[in-house]
């Protein structure tokens, strides 16, 4: 493997490892569920993307053709992580999980809880 590819793979692994460590630390240290959602959805997703990009580069070189499996995994993670975080946040709001006083946007939580589903076309008649 050429030196420049080894350097690129090492840099991607270091960046990915740093963000995974940062995401894990944030998940353990942040105090409430609304703050904890940011850590795995942002930092950890970026970290695993770095690791998968490094794997894609290495596998593409060793096989001799573009390795698409890592790209598909990365794409799947980048699509599903925000959706999962949104569902977790909606569940926490639905169950009226209390946020700490220092959590920002608490005035929005009350307005979101009071929203109702829009009326259907038949109800409008």
**Radius of gyration over alpha carbons?**
20 Å
Portion in helices? over 70%
Helix vs. strand class: mainly alpha
Q: How many domains comprise the coordinates? A: 1
Shape: elongated
**For the report, how would you describe the main beta sheet?**
none
Termini, distance in Å?
70 Å
Strand content: under 5%
Based on the structure, what is the oligomeric state of the protein chains?
single chain
Q: Count the E strands.
A: 0
What is the average of the pLDDT values?
84
With helices defined by DSSP (H or I, 4 residues minimum), what is the helix count? 6
Order of helices and strands: HHHHHH
Transmembrane segments: 6-28, 71-89
Pfam families: PhaG_MnhG_YufB
InterPro entries: PhaG_MnhG_YufB
Protein name: Monovalent cation/proton antiporter, MnhG/PhaG subunit
Task: Give an account of the 3D structure.
There is one protein chain. It is built from six helices and no strands. With 125 residues, it is mainly alpha-helical. It has one domain. It is elongated and about 60 Å long. The termini are far apart.
């Amino acid at each position: 493997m050429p030196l420049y590819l080894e350097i690129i793979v090492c840099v991607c692994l270091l960046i990915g490892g740093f963000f995974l460590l940062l995401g894990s630390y944030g998940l353990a240290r942040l105090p409430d569920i609304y703050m904890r959602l940011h850590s795995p959805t942002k930092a950890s997703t970026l970290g695993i993307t770095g690791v998968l990009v490094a794997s894609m580069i290495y596998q593409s070189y060793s096989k001799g053709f573009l390795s698409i499996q890592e790209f598909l995994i990365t794409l799947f993670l980048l699509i599903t992580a925000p959706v999962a975080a949104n569902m977790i946040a909606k569940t926490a709001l639905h169950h009226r999980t209390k946020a700490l006083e220092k959590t920002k946007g608490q005035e929005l939580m009350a307005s979101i809880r009071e929203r109702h589903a829009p009326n259907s076309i038949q109800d409008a008649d």
